[in-house]
Each structure stands twice: as structure tokens, then as C-alpha cells.
What does this fold into?
Amino acid sequence: MKRRKSLLYFGFSMEVKLRSNTWKIVRMDLGPSVRGEIDPSSYVNKSIRISTRLKKNQEILEVLLHECLHGCFWDIDEEAVEKAAFDISKALYKLGARVDVNKLLKKK
Ligand SMILES: [Zn+2]
It folds into this structure.
């Protein structure tokens, strides 16, 4: 079977700009209990890391939103971010929003 050309194949990864800061979004194994992480905006090479253990697209969307909300509103408490990301991801998923995981670079 011929390998499909993809962004992943060429080693590009997605970047997201949140309030004039840019994060690279990568997928990597974060262990059994962490679904996602974000570096503080003060870091030079910032990344948002999404666990490769997540398989359900709605959950990937939720975790991505969760980390993006942290990036936008660094001082908002975890519980508010948790609830907002869950509710927004549910609404967006219902409307057909999906994360194209092939656009996210996998890091070991
Ligand atoms: Zn959080």
C-alpha cells in the first residue's frame, strides 16, 4: 500500500496562537493519569501536549479546548476550565467538530 502524504510524514506540527503567544500542539505519551498539558506563556518553545492514550475524538477535542483555555486565561481555576472545556467540546462535537489527529506531530 502506498503511504499517504501527510503533514505528520513531513514532520510539521500544528501551532495555535492564543492571545499573541504561540504553542506547538503535539501528541505524546503522558502516562496513565495525564490527558494533556500546557507550558506557561513565559516559555520560549511552548507546547500543548495531548496524550496519545486518548482515542475518542470528543475527548481529544475536550482536552485541546481545556489546554487552550489555560493558554487564554492563565489565572482561571482548574475546575472552571474543566467544566467549560467539557461543555464547549460537547456542543462543538454535536455540531460536527472533530480534531484531525493526523495534523498533530507525535513525539515519543
Ligand atoms: Zn487544567
In short: The longest helix spans residues 78-94.
